[in-house]
Amino acid sequence: MPAPETIAFADDILILIDQTKLPGELATLECRDIQQTHDAIKRLVVRGAPAIGIAAAYGVCLARDDAGHRSRDAYLHAIEYLATSRPTAVNLFWALDRMQSVLQSTDERELPDRLLAEAVAIHDEDREMCHSIGRNGATLLKGKQRVLTHCNAGGLATSTWGTALAPIYQLHESGEPIEVYADETRPLLQGGRLTAWELSQAGVPVTVLTDSMAGSLLRTGKIGAVIVGADRIAANGDVANKIGTYPLAVLARYHDVPFYVAAPSSTFDLTLDSGDLIPIEERGRDEIAKPFGLTIVPDQAEVMNPAFDCTPAELVTAIITERGVVTEPNREKLALHLA
Prior knowledge:
Elements: E1 7-10, E2 13-17, E3 28-31, H1 34-42, H2 49-60, H3 72-82, H4 90-105, H5 111-141, E4 146-149, H6 166-173, E5 179-183, H7 190-202, E6 206-209, H8 214-219, E7 225-228, E8 232-234, E9 239-242, H9 245-254, E10 259-262, E11 268-269, H10 286-289, E12 308-311, E13 318-320, E14 325-327, H11 331-338
Parallel strand pairs: 4-5, 4-7, 5-6, 7-10, 8-11, 10-13
Antiparallel strand pairs: 1-2, 2-3, 8-9, 9-12, 13-14
């Protein structure tokens, strides 16, 4: 049974699967204003670069001024406010830029309908991109049988199917044998909680391992490929993704296992020359020291909690987008691919 869609919008309500409660409970959260939408993105009720962008676009449609009216100023404030929710995933800013373009080019009376139409278009386009990434990536994964992934880059992180999981769903749907090993993904366990949940819902065989087991697993020779998503890709092909992706790429290279990145074209940021310029979100202490309410670090100890790391392009075997596949990505190849 496929998992339900992550995001829906009806009757001026943004409806999100509450990913903080998975896998124990499948619950939804209703957002009726921009404050609730901002909080949902910040708290990771909705997460994954494409899903954040879609949610923010719908969030703009919820904007009202102090008198409860839909106005140009209220929409502008919503765009500016939602842009502060998370700094790394470029899809957030890409989607909000599209909403801003509509805001600047539309008569105020037509804004509610035009903005909602743009948000729906962003949502629909993401569905198409996910399926295209699935078809393009399946050509690389076919025959691999066992793949390793990190964090969650599936349907929960997008509109449907996802990015890194899309080729897996494509192969599974066509009857090709495919089995997934999912890093648990410390500190919030998105691999164990989310990837394993949605793959199980779809009937795809999945095994969860701790992040520190990945090297030993790769050494066995069982894994045919590693595939991950991305939150931002710089012009030279450096990839920002969930913390722990970079060491996984190093391990894959050492063990001669192809390392694939799957992402839509909206995840590329050609204004940044390299991954060194990608802003990396620092999250709160309790995610490390008291995960899920359990104290595991003494109060006297400091913690570090970057949400993402950056993998150099030279460690990436290929980047899969909705447009095709870029092998051994570099600045020139990506510029041509995205032109």
